[in-house]
Amino acid sequence: AALHLPLLPGSAPRPVLKQGQPLDRDTPARAKHQRRVAGSPEQEASVELAVWLEPSRSAQLVEIENLLANDNQDLIGDFSKPHLLPTVEGTDPSLKYISPGTLAAVLTGHFSSSIESTIVVDCRSPYEFEGGHVKGAVNLPLQRDVEEFLLEQPIVPLDASKRVIIIFHCEFSIERGPKMCKFLRERDRCCHEYPQ
């Protein structure tokens, strides 16, 4: 069986509307439409005036709806660029996973034109790590280890055109690896205004 590895940065799942699919009933555009239909003529005029007075806000809503209408699940957590590595389905839908073959490709330099450095975090216990591990991996079995290693002195690329990627795994990447990945994302979002 293939070992699936969670990949950070990832993004929390969000509803993605396919083209032609109706908007949710509580989106701003739908709510305005419902108020216009259901309201009195005075309310209708005030809603029309508000839209007319705030064209940039209306444009922002249209832009947001357009982004949601496109299938952007291949974008990284801050929506600034697509995932660099091919992803596969994993046990936690809020995380992105890679295959063992993709990890091997990363470690043998197949993505070196886009990746400045790769941090493979082995979340298993020290005795498991000592029994065998991915070459170059760091053993961070405890949450405080992850905070100390990855948050106190964040590793940033020297070349802005390249990326630093972090890959978490454990024995089968079902429990400890995904849990640690989510912990890091949570702690990072507590320290920084999302999506920074």
TrEMBL record:
Molecular functions per Gene Ontology: protein tyrosine phosphatase activity
One of the record's GO cellular component terms: nucleus
Disordered, as annotated region: 1-42
Entry-linked Gene3D superfamilies: Rhodanese-like domain
Record-linked Pfam families: Rhodanese
SUPFAM superfamilies registered for this protein in UniProt: Rhodanese/Cell cycle control phosphatase (SSF52821)
Lineage: superkingdom: Eukaryota
Family: Belongs to the MPI phosphatase family.
PANTHER family with a match to the protein in the record: M-PHASE INDUCER PHOSPHATASE 2 (PTHR10828:SF48), M-PHASE INDUCER PHOSPHATASE DUAL SPECIFICITY PHOSPHATASE CDC25 (PTHR10828)
Protein name: protein-tyrosine-phosphatase
